[in-house]
Amino acid sequence: MMTKRNLLAGAAGFFGIAAFDRMAGNRSVAFAETFEITKTEAEWRALLSPEQFAVLREEDTERPFTSPLNDEKRKGAFHCAGCDLPAFASETKYNSGTGWPSFWAPLDNAVATREDNSFFATRIEVHCRRCGGHFGHVFDDGPPPTGKRYCMNGLALTFKVAAA
Known about the structure:
The chain has a single domain (4-161), classed as Beta Complex (Metal Binding Protein, Guanine Nucleotide Exchange Factor, Chain A). Helix content is 22%, strand content 24%. A six-stranded antiparallel β-sheet has the order 3-4-8-7-6-5. The N and C termini lie far apart (72 Å). By secondary structure, the chain is α+β, with helices and mostly antiparallel strands.
């Protein structure tokens, strides 16, 4: 007999398994594919801050409205914080109001994508094509000319000002 208590206990167990699966790194793109730049976990941890490691290597998400890159308006490029590959041009950045740096297009041959079925939804995950670092997700609600919103974690990127 299905009681409210059984239903709640089953839901709690399901969510616990899903959370454990994510914490165990089972969603990590870095271990699912081969990339030009590969490092051991220890090498990545030595290179990145703990927060950057969580985002780039464990596919975490930074809190919205916390990245200084939200306010970056200078001409330049946003690079992968893991391997320094230029990923987004400042000319494609816009304020989506979501709290994360957003772009309407990446640079050519900079990112790769894959289907992400976590959290009971299908999304398109965006990662660095060279090192596999997790950037964020792309959605179909962006501005012209592409209609895309590349919603990226600021911790996954660094900004380099264009040479004058």
